[in-house]
Write a structure and sequence with these properties.
Rossmann fold, 2 domains, seven-stranded mixed sheet, globular
């Protein structure tokens, strides 16, 4: 996962919100609360339906505050963002998303966290969801269950960043601002899609996968996950610093491969494959909210040297 430089985020925050006073950087924020809501007969983009789709979420702050949605990455969860490096830098007193002012909502996307997913029992018979399904479910959670009528902000990282672009298109009048991080508003391509496809195919082609009906996790799952992590995370300089010799590189690789791994193959396959038809570019002009896109120089999946982000945001009236 891309490590964002929050000092950079802090410096840019005033450009979006004009909060005025310089922020304070404390780590304390209100105790998180968890909840779940069941959507009846949810219809996916494929035409498939689930009689009951469970949507789990975590909240921080008072529901009377200005609502903000925070979206997690591909294999993450809403609660997984409650770390010192993320929530501890954003949700405390005087911080950009001060939970005494904002009602912070962190949903688990379809197929992740404690929301409905293949490993609950349907395995490979679970509907083939995509990012549009995820965003539509998030919208229904907010509008129908939490009673949110308008958002101050949608912010997300990686998969959450891509879904932030989709939010701006599918529900253009529902938020004031969008802050997609570590993402591009273009279709899956290059290294980003090739690596995702390799993860998906390595699981599907593993004889131990058994078309999703395995009784123990296929060996390919951890290998593919470690491969993807090394190929797309952290930056070349950081990796070389951690493993400057072949011996140290072998040690690092062996450490990752032997570390305890609790993921589920079907869940991972669905999570990575759900980006297959992602492409918000054709509808970017639908976005009405103020948008601030943040990527980093060491992001191998969304390399800034391609110039894609710079060219796409020029199509928006209120973006940088």
């Amino acid at each position: 996962m891309l490590v964002l430089k929050f000092l950079f985020l802090r410096a840019l925050w005033l450009a979006v919100f004009s909060l005025g006073a310089p922020p304070v950087w404390a780590a304390d924020y209100p105790a998180p609360k968890e909840g779940s809501w069941v959507v009846r007969d949810f219809r996916f983009h494929t035409g498939e339906t689930l009689p009951e789709l469970r949507l789990h979420y975590t909240t921080v702050g008072d529901p009377a505050g200005e609502p903000v949605v925070v979206l997690h990455g591909t294999t993450g969860s809403g609660a997984g963002l409650l770390t010192p490096g993320f929530a501890g830098e954003l949700f405390g007193p005087g911080q950009p998303l001060d939970a005494s002012r904002y009602y912070v909502i962190l949903p688990d996307a379809i197929g992740t966290g404690k929301s409905s997913k293949p490993s609950d029992g349907m395995r490979a018979k679970f509907p083939q969801y995509n990012y549009n399904d995820m965003v539509d479910a998030q919208y229904r959670l907010l509008a129908e269950h939490l009673g949110v009528k308008h958002l101050r902000l949608v912010i997300g990282n990686s998969m959450g960043g891509m879904q932030t672009w989709i939010w701006g298109q599918r529900y253009p009048g529902f938020m004031d601002a969008l802050l997609p991080m570590a993402s591009l508003p273009t279709e899956m391509s290059g290294r980003n899609w090739i690596l995702r496809r390799l993860v998906v195919d390595s699981i599907r082609n593993d004889p131990e996968w058994l078309s999703g009906d395995y009784t123990r996790q296929p060996k390919s799952l951890q290998f593919a996950s470690v491969f993807y992590g090394f190929a797309s995370n952290g930056g070349s300089q950081a990796l070389y610093k951690a493993a400057p010799t072949r011996e140290k590189a072998d040690q690092l690789l062996n450490q990752r491969l032997s570390a305890p791994f609790s993921g589920d193959a079907n869940d991972h396959l669905y999570q990575w494959d759900s980006s297959r038809d992602y492409n918000p570019s054709p509808g970017l002009e639908k976005i009405q909210a103020t948008l601030l896109a943040i990527n980093s120089a060491d992001d191998e999946r969304n390399p800034p040297e391609l110039g894609l982000l710079q060219s796409e945001v020029q199509r928006l009236k209120k973006a940088r």
